[in-house]
Specification:
The chain has two helices and four strands. The protein has 78 residues and is α+β, with helices and mostly antiparallel strands. The protein has a single domain, classed as Ribosomal Protein L24e, Chain: T (Roll), CATH 2.30.170.40. Strand 1 and strand 2 form a beta hairpin. The protein is elongated. The chain starts with 12 loop residues before the first strand and ends in a 5-residue tail after the last helix. The mean pLDDT is 95.
Length: 78
Amino acid sequence: MSAHCQVTGRKPGFGKSVSHSHRRTNRRWNPNIQRRSYFLPSEGRRVTLTVSTKGIKTIDRDGIEAVVARIRARGEKI
């Protein structure tokens, strides 16, 4: 499972970790990704989405039907 949110599009951030001696090593900041299953009343079925915690809040605010419509408008398959 890739660290990519289907709702918000959040992906890992990349950068350097700097030690006390100022040595730099690569690191990445992963978003908090969850697999959540939602019921779509219009289709009478469940869909499983890979969403960040901010994406979960977006679904709670706007509703699953509106969010799924936005995802499909972008061309992603659900």
